[in-house]
Amino acid sequence: MDSATGAMGSLLLKLGELAMDEYNLQKGVKRNVEALRREMESMQAALRKVGDAPSDQLDEQVELWARDVRELSYDADDVVDTFMVRVRVDDDNHGSKWMVMNKVAGFLRKAKTRHDIADEIKGIMERAREVAARRDRYKVDAVVARFNNGAAAAATGGCDPRLYGLYRDEAELVGIDEASDELMNALATETVVSVVGGGGLGKTTLARAVCNRLKPQFDCTAFVSVSSAPDIKKVFKDMLLELDKTKYKDIHNLVRDEKQLIDELRDFIQNKRFPHACRYLIVIDDIWDIASWSAIRCALVENNDGSTIIATTRDFDIAEQIGSHKLKTLPPKSSKKLFYGRIFGSEDKCPQELVEVSGKILKKCGDVPLAIITIASVLARIRNMAEEWYKVYNSIGYGLGNNHDMKNMRKILSLSYHNLPSHLRTCLLYLSIFPEDYEIERSRLIRMWISEGFIHPEKDGDNLFELADNYFNELINRSLIQPSGYVSGMPHSCRVHDMIHDLIRSLSSKENFVTVLDGISQQTSPASKVRRLSLQNNKLDNSTAQTNLKMSQVRSLSIFSSSGVSLLPSLSSFQVLRVLDLENCYLTEGCHLDLRHVCNLFHLRYLRLYECNFDRELLKEIENLKFLQTLIVKREVRLPSTIVELKRLMFLHVHTDTILPEGMDNLTLLEELSLIDINKSPNFAKELRNLMKLRELELFWGEMNESLEEALIESLCNLHRIQNLQIFPFGNSSLDFIGERWMPSVYLQRFVATGSSRFTIVPAWIRKNPSLLTNLTNLSIKLQELRQEDLKALGRLPALLNLRLYADRSECLLTCVGEFCCLRSFNLRSRDSLRLTFHQGAMPRVQRVLLSFHVQDGNGDFDFGLENLLSLEHADVFLSQTTGTIDNDMEMERAKSALRHAALIHPNHPTLEIH
């Protein structure tokens, strides 16, 4: 599906399928279907050309025509899809248990269904002819043909091999040193300072950089975002979690009002766990109103101990009340370094014929970092020809150098948007369903894209999830989304920059792609039909509802809090709903949004109930959801035995207390399955062997017996496509049965085994021939003993990026040149003393190291050779000791001194944190 062409892509596929003999349409109806398909193909081509042009360069009549065609495509797609759903549901329900009368009734019902589709197709054809006539009348093709901004570029296939490097922030830190020094000087005399400036100037980047520089001087630090629709309770909870991740690890699961949270913050700041009041550094990012700042300021009590608060805001009035530090644009020299670095690597590599036009483009960008990064991403993907670059230059709005308002910035961002291939535009616009500053889980977004029909295989055998994963990576490469929430060194989620978010919300509204109700700025489409609805604000009430909106053709419904539920009609009104995503909704008995209707949403492809309160019997008629692809329920729910009839299910994530029924091996399309307690569902260990398309699997168990071991190993050996296997064994049994008797597939990318159970030594499937595991990038295991020979075997894993080892004891360990050649993160925790040496040239790319060990008399000289890790940027060291004797205290100080010396003499001067 393409946002510019509405539902045209999926409609054309369905029309082709509809003409096949299996639907038994009359010849006249088939002819109409084929004629409609040809007409829609022609309209799709015209719509794509319209979509390539910025809307401010299009004739208003062309825009109106394009809007009407998109709406027609949605209506036609709903008509055809409804017919197909009804036919397939009837076919699925037509079993041997039916009596003759039921079969007759089914035949009559199908006949009426086919008669209805004939009438509907006739009506759609009439609308299509009228729209086609207006296309000729408005001369749409001629108008669009005159548009040529020269900035369109072919999409690049697959994932950029430089993706990992793009996750690092160096490019965005260009020119930050001077601004950082200025802010540090301001903080020398003021305890509360705001960084103020327009969007895209790098306020957040500057605040984070200064926070990192100052962090060693404070007892605790926190960096929290507020946003334009602030949830102050969430801000306070985020702050507490950042200040003490151990004490407040469950804070988001607790019910607290604002006063309780303010009291908790004030108590923590004045806490007695330090010999003095807590000396804190807190960054409050993106404050939009005085009320939010006032509430936050109440919680952050001044303790006269050198604590510091940094706030960022776009509002100069707010900054004036806080204490203002105006952020300047980049110096021209830094702008050039950022611009040329993004495109060529450095300024001296820029071809001579592009120097002049580059200067002109930079001037238009007005030394605004986001503008420079955005336009550089566009230029990097077109040919290095001055003529093409001048076309890009001429397409950027004038006056940006003197005016930093949002309108001019949007022109640059819109250029980046229109440079995207059509399928990526759709995927990007879809992010407008999420609130501002929301952390969007990568896998969740990809599943929604698939359920919406945005992802189509490019060739036979393509996996939709992997294809969508490439789309996600491409949006990162193009600087349109920001990676976040790293897991094992790779982004688990993403955020959308405020300016990009503003742009895509505006575009989504204009194209009637997403309708957002947030109680603040009602960016809804002028069209009365809602296609995708997102309720985003926890303060929505009936006064903000737009009662003229028609809900019957909503394809996607996302609700991010309970307060918006009362605005909606019954779920039974959402007749063509494909995606239902509910978060933090309390759906108790008598609630306006009655989830008992959910199993009658026959079109539903995606159902996610996250942190929602509802009847655990909710899904008892789940077999009605014949087309369901994704089911995510993050609380205990009783799954009926009929779930095994959902033959199209691809992603199933349930609570660990959920019991799976027998027959799960019927779900042969499953690709993801978590978190399954195989003790509660003992038959599942055997049935697992037939789920041969599984890519991701998470298993949990308490105790393991011999028969369960046999069944599990037999199943694991049959999963030839497994990429991510995570096991959480909390019994006392050994994991050696997996280590010795399982040989993973070559596709394995991640293996995690945590809990109380351990391998005796490194698994045999690593020891015997590590070179065969060519895709294994992330490994986390617990061992009774870590031997030198096993560490060498781990070092020969060809693609390993992140390694976590937990060892009860270890030999004297050495890492040498030629081992761990790709490793970025090394984590070794030992319950005993640690004798480890990094030789010069070892782990040449490792950036982060975490060591945890026991300090006792006779440990050695604590010279680990950290200075030999040439790419090291950060080291965390956790030290523990049994007793507090004088000798042990001296040994502890000796260990700390040796570690500090290693960081001091390291050429990179990495940050060192000793815990």
TrEMBL record:
GO molecular-function terms, A-Z: ADP binding
UniProt keyword terms in alphabetical order: Coiled coil, Leucine-rich repeat, Nucleotide-binding, Plant defense, Repeat
Coiled-coil regions, chain positions: 26-53
Name of the protein: AAA+ ATPase domain-containing protein
Family in the record: Belongs to the disease resistance NB-LRR family.
Ranges for domain AAA+ ATPase: 189-344
Pfam families referenced in this protein's UniProt entry, alphabetically: LRR_14, NB-ARC, Rx_N, WHD_DRP
Organism per entry: Oryza nivara
GO biological process: defense response to bacterium; innate immune response-activating signaling pathway; plant-type hypersensitive response
Top-rank taxon: Eukaryota
UniProt keyword Coiled coil present: yes
InterPro entries: AAA+_ATPase, Apaf_helical, Disease_R_plants, LRR_dom_sf, LRR_R13L4/SHOC2-like, NB-ARC, P-loop_NTPase, RX-like_CC
Disulfide bond recorded as keyword: no
SMART domains (alphabetical): AAA (SM00382)
